[in-house]
């Protein structure tokens, strides 16, 4: 049985406007740009039966061409910089980018590492940030509800 739905969080004005255009159904392409995999475990939990992010209109898809939003984890490694930029360009507009986890926001514990090109915001424009190392599933679901408006 899924947890009872908490109250819908408010999202900042530009995101809320885009969310309205997406009409409550947001397809998400996840990109691991260099994560330790901790954030992925929590994303899996957010989409699992307890937190069940899909009931709010968020769904993971396999191709950026099918997506409305990118959820990016990890610092952006040098090997993933071009791939992330190309994935972003493959998402049709209007598109949103979520930087999920402290590494995605500001490189976190990997700041200054030789293989790190930068934070997600240094490579593609970021609309929403989710803090935490890793963020809890509740925080991930809340951020996704900000995109779906549900
Ligand atoms: S924020 Fe923490 S859990 Fe997520 S990729 Fe970075 S080190 Fe791993």
Give descriptors for this structure:
five-stranded parallel beta sheet, 150 residues, alpha/beta, globular, 7 strands
Task: Write a compact overview of the structure shown.
Its cofactor is [4Fe-4S] cluster. Keywords: 4Fe-4S, Iron, Iron-sulfur, Metal-binding. This protein has five helices and seven strands; from the N terminus they run H-E-H-E-E-E-H-E-H-E-E-H.
Written overview of the protein:
This protein has 150 residues and is α/β, with parallel strands linked by helices. It is built from five helices and seven strands, in the order αβαβββαβαββα. Helix 2 packs across helix 5 (137-148). The two termini are 20 Å apart. The structure holds iron/sulfur cluster. The site of iron/sulfur cluster has 13 residues, from helix 2 and helix 4. Keywords: 4Fe-4S, Iron, Iron-sulfur, Metal-binding. InterPro entries: Complex_I_20kDa-like (IPR052375), NADH_UbQ_OxRdtase-like_20kDa (IPR006137). Its cofactor is [4Fe-4S] cluster. Pfam families: Oxidored_q6.
- Main β-sheet description: 5 strands, parallel
Proportion in helices: 25-40%
Round the mean pLDDT to the nearest integer and report it. 93
The total count of helices amounts to 5
Return the CATH architecture.
3-Layer(aba) Sandwich
CATH topology: Rossmann fold
Given the C-alpha coordinates, what overall shape results? globular
The succession of helices and strands, N to C, reads: HEHEEEHEHEEH
Strand content: 15-25%
The structure class reads: alpha/beta
If you compute it from the alpha carbons, what radius of gyration comes out, rounded to the nearest whole angstrom? 14 Å
Q: Which cofactor or ligand species appear?
A: iron/sulfur cluster
Q: What topology, given as strand order, has the largest sheet? A: 2-1-3-5-7
The low-confidence parts are: none
Organism: Nonomuraea rosea
Keywords: 4Fe-4S, Iron, Iron-sulfur, Metal-binding
Protein name: NADH-quinone oxidoreductase subunit B family protein
Domain NADH:ubiquinone oxidoreductase-like 20kDa subunit: 36-145
């Amino acid at each position: 049985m899924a947890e009872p739905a908490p109250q819908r969080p408010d999202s900042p004005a530009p995101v809320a406007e885009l969310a309205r255009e997406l009409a409550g159904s947001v397809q998400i392409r996840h990109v691991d740009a260099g994560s330790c995999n901790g954030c992925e475990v929590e994303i899996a939990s957010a989409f699992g039966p307890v937190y069940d992010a899909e009931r709010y209109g968020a769904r993971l898809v396999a191709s950026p061409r099918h997506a409305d939003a990118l959820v990016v984890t990890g610092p952006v490694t040098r090997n993933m910089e071009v791939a992330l930029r190309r994935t972003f360009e493959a998402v049709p507009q209007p598109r949103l980018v979520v930087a999920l986890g402290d590494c995605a926001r500001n490189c976190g514990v990997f700041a200054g590492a030789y293989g790190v090109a930068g934070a997600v915001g240094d490579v593609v424009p970021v609309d929403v940030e989710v803090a935490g190392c890793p963020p809890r599933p509740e925080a991930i679901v809340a951020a996704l509800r900000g995109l779906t408006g549900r």
